[in-house]
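Supplementary Note 3. Input sequence used for the single-chain structure prediction.
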Amino acid sequence: MRLNLSDHDQIEVKISDAVFVVNVLPTREIQRISEKHTKWKRGREVMDHKGFSADFWDATIASWKNLYDENGNEIPCDRANKLAVINKYPNIGSKIADEIEEYRESVLHETEFVAEKNS
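The predicted structure, written as discrete structure tokens, is reproduced below.
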């Protein structure tokens, strides 16, 4: 039996033969990452987008299966490889982001349906 004891949901995103296990980060976690990379300069907020992106993808991608390098070796799912995959193949990040958004919308719809049903 697999139990999710974290404070966020996980979904699987399949891209070709690869499967990405993805954390659906709560808004408060995304805000925490954003605040970490936002500084005040000359009276205005400036975000380090590269730093935000690195921390966001490291927190979002939990693991992957069936992802191999050009020599057929399985690519370990660590921070450096997560960032290399996302930076070299932006379509993977786009697909993951789309799946997260679709999941969030389905959960919101389900929540609204249950609330409507219970009223």
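The first helix runs from residue 27 to 36. The longest strand covers residues 9-15.
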